[in-house]
Specification:
single chain, about 200 residues, alpha+beta, 5 helices
């Protein structure tokens, strides 16, 4: 066997092993997770005028520990962790348990010409993990009512007695995956040859 082939096979086996190990670590980290939620709005969005939150990600455990990363319209950034108030935790549990919300799955995208807002959720359920991504470009794909209620909860969530997070503590606060926004030049490169 040639030396480069042996090196390639060793590297491939190592990558597969690391990938499987990372999935197992990720799985064990979600065992206590209640929800990972995110909301993002573009700066020029009329949808968010007058509201304080521009971007927010929150990870909440079943017992009420939270980690939050958010940017406010004022330009201030917050990275905090702490214990959520019981009233807020019960509100969140009720919102994500709503049958309309539980029935939503997948990615819902759209075209953005001027402004947009997006919502993401990653919620462990009895039968797997519910992943949801919703993009409302230019107000043309409004959030369903059950998502709007969760977004409002996110916007009004006020962490109490939060302590600063260090950078390693907020790498997995936001839901995994998500919508990939393409710049026009990149989108053009993805078109089939015969449609250019």
């Amino acid at each position: 066997m040639k030396p480069y082939t042996k090196s390639f096979l060793t590297a491939a086996v190592l990558l597969v092993w690391v990938g499987l190990w990372a999935q197992e670590v990720y799985h064990s980290e979600t065992s206590d997770l209640l929800a990972r939620l995110s909301y993002d709005s573009s700066a020029g969005s009329v949808i968010t005028e007058g509201e304080g939150v521009r971007q927010i990600c929150v990870a909440v455990s079943r017992d009420g520990d939270y980690r939050i990363v958010r940017s406010l319209n004022s330009g201030q950034k917050q990275r905090l962790h702490g214990k959520i108030q019981e009233r807020q935790l019960e509100q969140l549990r009720k919102l994500i348990s709503d049958s309309d919300f539980r029935g939503l799955l997948g990615s819902h995208g759209g075209l953005i010409r001027q402004a947009a807002e997006s919502f993401g959720a990653e919620i462990p359920r009895e039968n797997g993990i519910q992943h949801l991504q919703w993009l409302n470009g230019d107000g043309e794909s409004p959030f369903p009512g059950s998502v709007t209620k969760v977004v409002n909860w996110l916007k009004h969530f006020e962490p109490t007695d939060g302590k600063p997070l260090v950078s390693t503590d907020y790498s997995d606060v936001c839901p995994s995956g998500g919508l990939r926004l393409l710049h026009p030049s990149v989108a053009g490169n993805l078109l089939p040859e015969d449609s250019r």
